[in-house]
Design brief:
Length: 208
């Protein structure tokens, strides 16, 4: 048996947590199919002897009122089963390409290069959240062997009807940039509000 003196961890409340999020549709036309470009950024602190920023645990993005799921996106769209997703394992996802709705790029201070991946639509109600619209965010870096498969969900706010996408209990690892691009075209996942104007998204982010 090893015997030692326990060491306490202090100063967690001193960690900075100031991430930013940008969300932009891929078209400026009203009532039109649209992709979405989302960028989450958290500046690292690389000064020797200084405290690193707190690590993000949960993130929730609420899209503007009037932005809805594009009905045409269902044409030819498949779904990824939980077994294919690879979550809770170290295996790369095996989701079908027809279930892919977007691309992902992740930058972390732990690696000297970005890691790419994809966003997949999960099989309705047969996913970790049990939701109609489940999501899997999967990254796979063949250079380092890093694999991460994260479950998420999208739902409509019961009051405003706004679409809310959520990823919770994310890996306790530092991130610098996460870029998600939902595909464009007639079968894009989203549809813009019916009238032109200025619309605002809201993000809620929680640290570990």
């Amino acid at each position: 048996d090893l015997i030692g003196t326990p060491v306490s961890v202090n100063g967690c409340n001193q960690l900075q947590f100031e991430p930013t999020l940008e969300a932009k549709p891929t078209t400026n036309l009203a009532d039109s199919p649209s992709g979405l470009d989302v960028k989450v950024h958290q500046s690292p602190n690389e000064n020797l002897g200084s405290l690193s920023p707190a690590i993000m645990r949960d993130i929730s993005l609420t899209l503007p009122e009037g932005m809805t799921v594009n009905p045409s996106s269902a044409d030819g769209l498949a779904a990824c089963t939980q077994a294919q997703s690879g979550i809770h394992t170290t295996h790369p996802t095996n989701c079908p390409d027809a279930a892919k709705i977007g691309s992902v790029e992740v930058t972390t201070p732990l690696l000297d290069h970005p890691v790419s991946g994809a966003l997949y639509l999960a099989k309705p109600f047969e996913n970790p959240s049990g939701s109609l619209i489940g999501l899997y965010l999967a990254v796979n870096d063949p250079i380092t062997g890093v694999v991460a498969n994260l479950p998420g969900r999208a739902s409509a706010d019961p009051v405003s009807g706004q679409l809310v996408s959520t990823f919770e209990e994310n890996p306790e690892l530092p991130l610098e940039d996460v870029k998600v691009h939902l595909f464009t075209g007639p079968r894009a996942a989203l549809r813009t509000p019916p009238t032109c104007g200025t619309y605002t998204s809201r993000a809620d982010m929680t640290a570990w």
